[in-house]
Design brief:
two-stranded antiparallel sheet; alpha/beta; 7-stranded mixed β-sheet; 203 residues; Rossmann fold
Length: 203
């Protein structure tokens, strides 16, 4: 069973629909036992970094996330805001501490003439190294983004994919041990995105 963590964020149902379309069992939940006993755990969502961390802590989900991701080593995937929450901090809400499961910080996409922020739409991926998440996915494949902030990873070894927006090269997917995350929305990224989800479910 795949547990999709429910912390009142937007865009969670689309992840559930994608998984169900593959014939897999998924449940949207904030039940501590369901999360801790799941075969895989997904932290999706769109929204504000500070508000999201507040709800995660209000619902007592931070301990569950740390247990499955760090102690039990359950395959764990963050999507969009779910990626950002795995890191130490975000420029969106200075002073709010993230989950700090991986090394890095989230910063605002810098303004450039002619560049729209938020970054909404399709962009191509570059792969700096081998990745289980992107097995069978050709480099320069396009995926769908909606975000104003992006990850600057502190350790290049965790970066599984990057993309360029204006003059900025953004870290848009990470992978370390059992922890995976994408800034883009695989559930909205057509066949490429569905293959990424299948790759995660196969781990």
């Amino acid at each position: 069973m795949i547990a999709i963590i429910d912390y009142d964020a937007g865009n969670i149902r689309s992840v559930e629909k994608a998984i169900l379309s593959m014939g897999q069992e998924a449940v949207i939940t904030r039940d501590h036992d369901e999360i801790r006993n799941a075969d895989k755990v997904i932290l999706p969502g769109v929204g504000n970094f500070g508000d999201a961390m507040g709800r995660i802590r209000t619902y007592g989900l931070e301990e569950d996330i740390r247990y499955v991701a760090l102690e039990k080593k359950t395959p764990f995937m963050g999507i969009c805001l779910g990626l950002q929450l795995l890191f130490r901090s975000s420029d969106e809400t200075p002073g709010v501490e993230g989950l700090d499961l991986l090394p890095g910080n989230v910063v605002r996409i810098p303004a450039e003439e002619g560049l729209k922020i938020p970054h909404i739409g399709w962009n191509s991926l570059k792969f700096p190294g081998e990745s289980r998440l992107f097995q069978g996915i050709p480099e320069d494949s396009y995926v769908y983004f909606v975000h104003s902030y992006y990850l600057k990873a502190s350790e290049p070894s965790i970066v599984a994919a990057t993309c360029q927006y204006g003059s900025t090269v953004m870290d848009v997917a990470v992978e370390r041990d059992n922890i995976f995350a994408t800034q883009f929305h695989p559930e909205k990224s057509s066949d490429v995105g569905l293959q990424i989800i299948r790759n995660f479910l196969a781990i």
